[in-house]
Design goal:
By secondary structure, the chain is mostly helical. Helix content is about 85%, strand content about 0%.
Length: about 400
């Protein structure tokens, strides 16, 4: 009994709670990271056309960003965050099982529409909770969060391949995702949220608290440092997810290699990026994140320019690996500074991120239109814009000190 009670005390410890939050991010990226690998199989199984695939990828996140996740973020600051996270876990598990059992395009689309806002509550508010645990270590904890997600991306893609090779198929994978989400829910049920892991609930009635939360979000959007970090996050994505999305096409259409070798380029990018995410965790205990980011943005500009110019498959593979290593931490550092600029409003940070994400969602379309008119080789210059924007927009030491003083005055 003593051993059991000692174990129970450890189970309620803050370290285990942090591990649970990181495991939730791993599970989310585990599911979404497998989507690219499973999509050709889903398309063949359900007989989907390219227009249906495009709608499947675009409509669920658009609806979530427009109608659901902004409200969830505000509620995470003014209402019962633990209940929202647990409700998101239920929706996440149910959506995964509906995807697994879908026999028509309509059923699959409905399941994906459910998955995105469920992920917003389950995973987005878990990230906000992690940020509230240690307000002075936002960058470091975001680095851990990003590394956990990178592990999930790699693990999900690998496991889908193993399931297919074993004859289990993509449906068994999503069945497993639902089971893992229920496991996380059961652990959440046993673990109370630490007192410093979320803002105090609003004393106002539900609807009044929600309106007050949106007013606070509007005030936050008028603050220069909040807009700065959000814009830099969107520009950084030029060298992150947007480049990732076009990387295989570049190797096939511009470099002229078979699809298998193009897949190798994506694997190198992802694998080396995982190493970079891991290396960033101890680095941020020694170097200021913004200092590293300015150095990295300048270095990435040179590396990516060389990647576009240098001929031959092997040099390009080497360079894309180095690029994947040094852009690690961009999302973690910028997100950490956004949370620091919004003390006590971590859910509001999620809401603002979704609103700016609507603007950023246009960029892949712009690149596609540019590629259609001028060729993909010319359109692949877009990621350089992200490097330049970071170099220009990141605050110098004087700016950082001034922002800290302003934040102290506003919080006081």
């Amino acid at each position: 009994m003593r051993i059991r009670s000692r174990f129970a005390r450890r189970l309620r410890g803050p370290a285990v709670f942090v591990l649970l939050l990181l495991a939730i991010e791993f599970l989310d990226e585990f599911a979404y990271g497998a989507q690219e690998a499973a999509l050709p199989l889903i398309r063949t199984d359900l007989g989907l056309g390219y227009d249906q695939v495009g709608l499947l990828l675009a409509l669920p996140p658009l609806l979530a960003n427009l109608f659901f996740e902004p409200v969830l973020g505000i509620l995470g600051d003014v209402w019962k965050r633990r209940l929202l996270v647990m409700g998101g876990a239920v929706g996440f598990a149910l959506a995964a099982w509906l995807i697994s059992g879908s026999q028509s395009y309509a059923a699959l689309l409905a399941a994906m529409i459910l998955l995105h806002p469920s992920s917003g509550a389950f995973v987005g508010l878990s990230q906000s909770t992690l940020m509230d645990l240690e307000p002075e270590r936002h960058e470091q904890n975001m680095a851990r969060w990003t590394f956990s997600g990178s592990l999930g991306v790699v693990g999900g893609a690998l496991l889908v391949g193993l399931f297919v090779a074993a004859g289990l198929g993509w449906r068994a994978f999503y069945l497993l995702v639902g089971v893992l989400a229920v496991g996380a829910l059961l652990v959440l049920w046993r673990l109370p949220f630490p007192a410093n892991s979320h803002p105090a609930e609003s004393p106002l009635p539900f609807w009044a608290g929600l309106r007050a939360g949106f007013r606070e979000a509007g005030r936050a959007l008028r603050r220069r440092e909040v807009v700065r970090w959000m814009l830099l996050l969107e520009f950084s994505d030029f060298m992150l997810d947007i480049l990732h999305g076009y990387l295989a096409l570049y190797f096939v259409d511009v470099v002229g290699v078979p699809e298998a070798q193009a897949g190798l380029a994506v694997a190198i990018w992802t694998g080396v990026g995982l190493v970079g995410d891991f290396a960033l965790i101890p680095l941020l205990n020694r170097v200021r994140g913004v200092t590293y980011l300015r150095f990295s943005a300048a270095l990435e500009f040179g590396l990516y320019t060389a990647f576009l110019i240098v001929p031959g498959l092997i040099p390009k593979l080497v360079l894309i690996g180095v690029i994947g290593f040094f852009n690690a931490g961009w999302y973690a550092i910028l997100s950490g500074n956004l949370y620091t600029a919004l003390p006590g409003q971590s859910g509001t940070a999620m809401t603002i991120g979704n609103l700016f994400g609507l603007i950023g969602s246009v960029v892949p379309l712009l690149i596609g239109l540019a590629a259609e008119r001028f060729g993909l080789e010319a359109a692949m210059l877009f990621p350089l814009v992200g490097c330049v924007a970071l170099w220009i927009g990141l605050p110098r030491q004087v700016d950082v000190s001034r922002e800290a003083d302003e934040q102290e005055v506003s919080s006081g």
